[in-house]
Amino acid sequence: MRTGPSQEEVRRQNLGALLRYVHIHGPTSRAELTSELGLNRSTIGALTADLAGAGLVTEAAPRETGRAGRPSLVVRPESERVYAYAFSIEVDQLRAARVGLGGEVLDHRADDRPAGLPAAEAVPLLAEFVKDLQQAVPDTAVYVGGGVSVSRMMRRADGKAGLSGGTDSAAVAEPLGAVLNAELGAERPLVMGNAADVAALAEHARGAAVGCDNVIYLHRDAGVDAGIIVGGRRLTGYAGQGGQVGHMVVLPGGRPCSCGSRGCWETEIGDRALLNAAGRDGDGGRGAALAVVDAASRGDASAQAAVRQVGDWLGFGLANLINIFDPEMVIFGGTLRDVYLAAAAQVRSRLNSMALTAAREHVRLRTPQLGEDAALIGAAELAFERLLADPLSS
Amino acid sequence: MRTGPSQEEVRRQNLGALLRYVHIHGPTSRAELTSELGLNRSTIGALTADLAGAGLVTEAAPRETGRAGRPSLVVRPESERVYAYAFSIEVDQLRAARVGLGGEVLDHRADDRPAGLPAAEAVPLLAEFVKDLQQAVPDTAVYVGGGVSVSRMMRRADGKAGLSGGTDSAAVAEPLGAVLNAELGAERPLVMGNAADVAALAEHARGAAVGCDNVIYLHRDAGVDAGIIVGGRRLTGYAGQGGQVGHMVVLPGGRPCSCGSRGCWETEIGDRALLNAAGRDGDGGRGAALAVVDAASRGDASAQAAVRQVGDWLGFGLANLINIFDPEMVIFGGTLRDVYLAAAAQVRSRLNSMALTAAREHVRLRTPQLGEDAALIGAAELAFERLLADPLSS
Fold this sequence. Notes:
2 copies of one chain form a homodimer. By secondary structure, chain A is an alpha/beta fold. In chain A, about 45% of the residues lie in helices and about 20% in strands.
């Protein structure tokens, strides 16, 4: 049961709306904020003063506008001063970044993730990154929280990738949160998200899907996963397990999957499927998969056939998702980006024969705009969400 | 970009929250409203007075409580006086009802839908229902709007069911809205929803899924569809076409489907599939399908085999949806209710082998609580949503 907001909540929502606007759109004049937020000038002035008092924004006269009259002051997020830590625990690498309010990556560190290393055991390595990054932080800077992107997949000691078991997120949250709080001397929440959701969030906030409220971001990180945005909000599911589209069965009795089932979509569009179809060693991973796409572009017939076959299955499963979700946009992430670009005709052909016209005709197929940074930018967004919900609470 | 609410919006939200509470929960004491809505006593008193002044609720002393002290006044929705019209355009029947605030069906009419009749041509028949129903309406009653549930399927002139083309909803909205406004002398919005969404909404508000925010309602009305609730809100998709799970392909190269594709889930769990599997005429429809389930319960071996086969495919596709959505509850509607009850072991077995443990272990499988009334109750909810969003606007 939703209850109505109090006076204090109204102010908090307005503060959050203003701060979110400059966080997403960058420096903005008071005049534009007045019209974009639907609040009057005196309210904008009071809110800005509160946010400036808390050190979250600054105000300054704009550069020469060339127009007569007193120019509207420009409100800027304190991007160098207010920051979050963002972490990305991927199948084969570990990354940490300091990200400023406004979404800029200010500094970052990365290293390989040793095969077989559980996510929880990555915490000491991430803690070293933080200690290192922290040395360059100005004394006046304000830490607002941390966000973590965790892959649902891990590379096992035998070099093969598999589901990490679904408990990594919880196993990381507590020790990494404790490290951050001890290192930074602040009790700040650490927000966890799976890698697909985080990448979708980043593309929705700052990338290809800005302004789209129904988005499927197909994610590849050893396995196939999706970050799904429904009506403007992330689909998380009841237990945070939503979006595991790679384990939609597309071929009954098909190849065995790492999840224990058979014929999962992942077994037909994963890197291993592409490599097998091209007659290559299936354990080569991302680089080997991209080499197949590259060989296809140079005319290698068996590589071309493999790319077409995987593209066909990519369109097959995607048609199902389009019928289920009626999205406005689909984004192909990871190696699926390259497969899609090389086999767009196969993908389109499957959509034309399998997806319902009314759901298909408006869908836009896109590749990511943010590249490798998406995980860090999205993880930082998880942390900034808390600040934006209640800017003056801390 | 979300902006903060004004004073007036705060009041509107509080009025909506109070009215929604008694609309869903029925007569409620002021004391309970105070604690449930998190507002103080004087605010509850003022809001109740406003709603009573608008004729939406009444207040009265409760029946004998047996406790000492002055009893808290009880706030009741004006269920006999404030009403919506609800319509249901199904494959084989047309229904209309007058539904009171609080969700009670006050009066209703129904008739067969002639085979081949497009939804738009049902409007004159529904208009007759309204004229008839209207004769019993007290002079003091207040009409607040109408809601329509439209099946995405229609029964063609040859007796077979197929997709109606996706434009029925728009083709009905305008003429039916005009009829209602002319008949009732009021400019009220007519809200359209597809039958699966509407049934899900009804079960979520007043049926099996009360309190569950992640729900898949599998709907059967000649075809297979789903009403899906994600994070407490209906999944509609970009163009209102979301939820068409019946056209998820589960068997590549399988049987031809009415949508033009092959091997859709609908071709394996539809009434026709059940009838074919039992060696019976596939065009028998709902009654014939239920007869197969009945025969299976009485020991008919071929009917038992057919039910097991369809139950197996029901679990197969559902496992995919559980991996994608991570729902808290799945509800089996229409003839899928009977198939599920007769083949729960097959469904469970498929979920155990195909659905990911972390998404499967908490999901509750249920049958609908509201029966035939779900379409009318859900359609009325569509209309009441407008009233609850802004109770005093009209």
